[in-house]
Write a structure and sequence with these properties.
alpha+beta, Jelly Rolls, 4-stranded antiparallel β-sheet, 3 helices, binds fe (ii) ion
Length: 216
């Protein structure tokens, strides 16, 4: 190695994943759980998206943000997205707005197929219940040209983070992740060992668009 060689590395085009943890989320999550299971009772078939209904994974309709039962969560999301707008230099006369919101209940054995969320800018997930063993969410580098011919890395050593081609997040109750809607993601099968509904992996998810403030 030549100690005299200097090298400047600059990262461009990063893939941004924002994380926000809601403190004291106990009451919020209990109230969400009640609303979500009630909604499943009301609409057992739900909709078929990335979930696996044939195995028991339930996906609600996508208009939950219109119900008062989810208003408190919406307030948290709006706080996060207004901070994102400021940090990213978005125009002041525009605002980030939740345009769709839904819930997914994954009982043990269920995951979600890899997918993206067309028609919006940002998408998010909020973990309402995440027992030990609940499936992790995996984000995959969408630059397939890069994946075609990968360099060899040192065996059994973790690559530098800037060289990762996928990343997993362990779900944690009270945690919110917001990611680009174009970023492919899927969810591993729920392997929780608890009994009954305590074993369910329960999330709220939402899509975010940028709209003129007057329309917000
Ligand atoms: Fe998704």
């Amino acid at each position: 190695m030549n100690a005299n060689v200097s090298l400047v590395r600059t990262n461009y085009f990063p893939t941004m994943v924002f994380q926000h943890d809601i403190g004291n989320h106990g009451d919020l999550n209990n109230s969400l759980l009640t609303s979500i299971y009630n909604e499943r009772e009301r609409d057992r078939s739900g909709v078929n998206k990335s979930n696996t209904p044939q195995l028991g994974s339930w996906h609600s309709h996508t208009g939950l943000h219109k119900s008062p039962a989810y208003a408190e969560l919406l307030t948290h999301v709006n706080s996060v997205t207004s901070l994102m707008s400021r940090e990213l230099g978005y125009a002041n006369d525009y605002t980030l707005k939740v345009t769709t919101m839904w819930s997914i209940i994954n009982p043990p054995g269920n995951g979600n197929r890899a997918h993206i969320h067309p028609g919006c800018i940002w998408s998010g997930v909020y973990y309402v219940q995440a027992p030990e063993g609940a499936g992790e969410i995996e984000f995959v580098d969408p630059r397939t040209a890069l994946l075609m011919n990968q360099p060899k890395y040192i065996a059994k050593k973790k690559r530098p983070r800037d060289c990762w081609t996928k990343v997993n997040y362990k779900p944690m109750a009270g945690r919110m992740l917001i990611f680009p809607s174009w970023l492919y993601h899927g969810v591993d099968p729920n392997m929780a060992k608890e009994s009954g509904q305590k074993a369910d992996r329960v999330i709220m998810s939402f899509n975010i668009s940028q709209v003129k403030r007057a329309e917000a």
